[in-house]
Design goal:
alpha+beta; 2 domains; 6 strands; about 50% helix
Length: about 260
């Protein structure tokens, strides 16, 4: 029987039609793939978040150095350095030999990456202050009661000593004492800037010499008072020039 145009089109359509069951299977397969990739993407994201949270919740390791030495300036101080670069300093005692005892001094600062790494490397070499640190010799003059302490998620150790023959402990002691000297000079500069500006030049001169002799460390920690002296036009030009040179030497950008 001869087919008309309409019948032919309908018949060809029926031949090309895809069974509904096949379409369902394809759609189902796509949905399964989407679910698979979505599940793995979410799992990866959760793992990344968990790792980030674990890193944030992990406490920073800290190293603390304290010195108690009556009749010295200061007679007591504590320096704490964290593995994340934060540092804190507290001291008590007179500001100068002729002054009255002052209020306790506190300063928070960021330690330089170089000294932060050096401090923690030396602590590792000193076995985190476990075991015998003090020389134990009685005929050595007292240079103050010192304590080095280390603390992280696994360790909590400390050592008391007057003098230590351990090279890493000797280096740490010298570095911490140099940092303390820098911060105490900054404290004195702040006092003289407020009450006795003519005395600034002599103290800045001494500070320059100590920097040249490598007897100071972390000079950038006292950059704020050096900046104030530099910007103060009521201070002698020679003193302002010294403050500027110290800022440059410390790596801090001087600004007038």
């Amino acid at each position: 029987m001869r087919q008309g145009p309409v019948e032919a089109v309908l018949r060809n359509r029926d031949r090309m039609a895809v069974p509904l069951s096949s379409v369902a299977i394809v759609d189902c397969g796509h949905a399964t793939l989407r679910a698979f990739f979505l599940r793995h993407a979410l799992t990866g994201l959760l793992l990344i978040c968990a790792a980030a949270l674990a890193q944030e919740s992990k406490p920073a390791a800290t190293i603390t150095f304290s010195l108690d030495f009556p009749q010295s300036i200061p007679d007591h101080y504590v320096l704490t350095v964290s593995s994340d670069g934060r540092a804190g300093y507290d001291s008590t005692g007179k500001l100068t030999p002729d002054s009255e005892p002052t209020d306790p001094f506190h300063l928070d600062f960021t330690i330089s990456p170089t000294n932060r790494e050096k401090i923690f490397d030396l602590a590792a070499k000193a076995k985190y202050f476990q075991g015998k640190v003090d020389s134990g010799k009685k005929n050595i003059a007292s240079t103050g009661a010192k304590v080095l302490a280390y603390r992280d998620g696994q360790r909590n150790t400390r050592a008391e000593y007057n003098y230590s023959p351990v090279p890493a402990v000797q280096e740490l002691t010298a570095l911490f004492q140099n940092i303390s000297t820098t911060l105490e000079i900054g404290r004195q500069l702040d006092y003289y800037h407020h009450y006795q500006k003519l005395a600034l030049d002599e103290h800045l001169k001494q500070m320059e010499q100590m920097v040249n002799d490598k007897n100071l460390a972390e000079v950038q920690a006292v950059a704020p008072i050096l900046q104030k002296i530099l910007a103060d036009q009521s201070v002698m030009n020679v003193s302002r020039a010294r403050a500027q040179r110290l800022l440059i030497a410390s790596g801090a950008a001087p600004s007038r």
